[in-house]
């Protein structure tokens, strides 16, 4: 008997190691099989089994005319549980794979007869495992192994189960098809841009929305050039901010079609996506035509503006009449009369504030709101607005943590309305007796104002929507709180028109802090 080292026969040296399957092969009673004991095996069979056992890649071997089976630990998981393993070891192929034998036997015969090796990728071959017949996908190759020169000995199978990958690809394909259907039903245009090279690929529909011919190439600059010049800088800045800070792109703007000069309102959504190396350099998104929706909004805003304007005159007169009556009765000792007049004056003032908000909303939506900038002390304005609020309410303490004088270059009236709105909300959403704190100062070269309350707080799912038009937080605690959901929207628009930012930090039940900042401008006279 051949030996390759003292105390160890040749077949023992070849069959050492191999994990679980190596041990099963060594323990198997081969003497009672058609192959006989391992010491009688050919050198080629021992070599092939040795290669299989040492491989980390799934491998399988059919040997001899009966196609007796061998496989390694890497192939073992493909057998499943409570299925073919471990009895598949040493079993004839036809007995092990009756469910797929008509499919794989012709491939085996082809290779054994001297044909070329086979290659199949993501091939569906259902097998019985885990006590049921499963749809399983495979990528595999069949290759002939010679027993002696010119004499076929068996078929070596190098394979990998790809069921998970195929299912994932099918899910992606299904999602892509659903996305295509959604885009088609929305009649949306799409684009993809390489942020490094600025290469821009647009769909035919996107070109149509901009009034460009579908055959001609389209660049990002072509799209920007079609935007109404009043909105062009805003869109360009939003785009650059998205690319620089990896933010979502979501903006509405009018375009003037290049072909027929038609004005069309678009809403664009975009997002940055990483490449294969994790670098965010693919900017893609879609644009939809919202012209009809925008016209409906403008008609509604025109109506709001007309009604608000018509209400403003009688409210002004009513305010004057109440003030005359208050002056006439200032020496009147009847508390009921003076109390009624004070309440009437307070309600008329609330009504006037609401009408002014609707007027500002109408002007904002129709592009008629103007920012008249001037230099003024922001700390002085905050003190004035706190005093105004304290005159109208009772039971609250508002503390202003005095800061150094801050001279800003902004629209005093409109920034004042933002401060008033934040203070009013802090009062409305806080129980009586709670403390409200106002701070201001310089943060990262921006002038920052914070209004902090100890109120009911805001739930996390409401936070992203607070500055949307007509959005109101709905809960059992807010049913009796008046409002139309336009104050924060107007505040956000005013701050945006000053190139600033407004945001909130809050947790339900612990109060909220609203912030806004304004850029330090050279026109402000500040260093």
Widest sheet: strand ordering: 4-3-9-8-5
Number of helices: 14
Q: How many domains would you count in the coordinates?
A: 4
Helix and strand composition category? alpha+beta
Name the CATH homologous superfamily of the largest domain: PAS domain
Q: What global shape is seen?
A: elongated
Radius of gyration, taken over Cα atoms and rounded to an integer in Å: 39 Å
**Which fold name is given in CATH as the topology of the largest domain?**
Beta-Lactamase
Mean pLDDT: 83
Largest sheet: 5 strands, antiparallel
CATH architecture of the largest domain: 2-Layer Sandwich
Q: What fraction of residues sit in β-strands?
A: 25-35%
- The CATH class assignment of the largest domain is Alpha Beta
Terminal Cα span: 97 Å
Enumerate the spans where pLDDT stays under 50 for 5 or more consecutive residues.
1-7, 522-527
Helix percent band: 25-40%
Structure summary, number of beta strands: 21
């Amino acid at each position: 008997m051949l030996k390759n080292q003292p105390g160890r026969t040749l077949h023992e040296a070849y069959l050492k190691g191999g994990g679980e399957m190596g041990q099963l092969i060594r323990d198997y009673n081969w003497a009672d099989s058609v192959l006989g004991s391992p010491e009688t095996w050919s050198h080629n069979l021992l070599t092939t089994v040795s290669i299989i056992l040492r491989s980390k890649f799934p491998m399988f071997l059919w040997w001899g005319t009966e196609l007796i089976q061998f496989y390694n630990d890497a192939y073992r998981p493909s057998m499943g549980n409570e299925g073919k393993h471990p009895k598949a070891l040493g079993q004839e192929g036809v007995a092990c794979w009756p469910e797929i034998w008509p499919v794989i036997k012709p491939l085996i015969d082809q290779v054994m007869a001297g044909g070329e090796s086979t290659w199949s990728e993501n091939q569906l071959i259902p097998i019985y495992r885990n006590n049921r017949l499963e749809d399983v996908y495979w990528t595999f190759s069949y290759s002939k192994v010679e027993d002696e020169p010119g004499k076929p000995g068996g078929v070596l199978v190098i394979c990998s189960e790809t069921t998970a990958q195929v299912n994932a690809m099918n899910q992606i394909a299904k999602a892509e098809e659903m996305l295509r259907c959604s885009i088609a039903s929305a009649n949306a245009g799409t684009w993809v841009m390489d942020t490094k090279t600025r290469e821009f690929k647009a769909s035919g529909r996107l070109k149509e929305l901009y009034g460009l011919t579908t055959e001609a190439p389209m660049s990002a600059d072509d799209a920007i050039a079609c935007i109404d010049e009043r909105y062009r800088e805003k869109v360009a800045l939003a785009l650059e901010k998205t690319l620089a800070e990896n933010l979502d792109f979501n903006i509405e703007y009018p375009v003037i079609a290049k072909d027929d000069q038609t004005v069309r309102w678009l809403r664009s959504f975009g997002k940055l996506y990483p490449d294969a190396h994790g670098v965010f350099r693919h900017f893609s998104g879609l644009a939809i035509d919202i012209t009809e929706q925008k016209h409906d909004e403008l008609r509604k805003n025109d109506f709001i503006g007309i009604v608000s304007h018509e209400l403003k005159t009688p409210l002004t007169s009513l305010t004057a009449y109440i003030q005359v009556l208050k002056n006439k009765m200032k020496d009147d000792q009847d508390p009921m009369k003076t109390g009624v007049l004070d309440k009437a004056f307070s309600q008329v003032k609330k009504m006037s504030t609401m009408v002014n908000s609707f007027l500002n909303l109408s002007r904002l939506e129709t592009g008629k709101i103007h920012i008249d900038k001037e230099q003024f002390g922001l700390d002085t304005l905050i003190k004035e607005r706190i005093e105004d609020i304290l005159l109208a309410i009772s039971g609250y303490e508002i503390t202003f943590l005095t800061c150094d004088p801050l001279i800003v270059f902004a629209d005093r009236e409109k920034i004042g309305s933002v401060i008033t709105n934040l203070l009013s909300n802090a009062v409305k959403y806080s129980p009586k007796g709670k403390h409200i704190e106002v701070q201001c100062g310089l943060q990262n070269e921006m002038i920052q104002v914070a209004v902090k309350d100890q109120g009911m707080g805001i739930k996390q799912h409401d936070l992203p929507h607070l500055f949307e038009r007509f959005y109101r937080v709905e809960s059992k605690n807010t049913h009796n709180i008046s409002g139309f959901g336009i104050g924060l929207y107007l505040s956000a628009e005013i701050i945006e028109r000053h190139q600033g930012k407004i945001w909130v930090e809050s947790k339900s039940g612990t109060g909220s802090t609203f912030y806004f900042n304004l850029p330090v401008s050279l026109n402000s006279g500040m260093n």
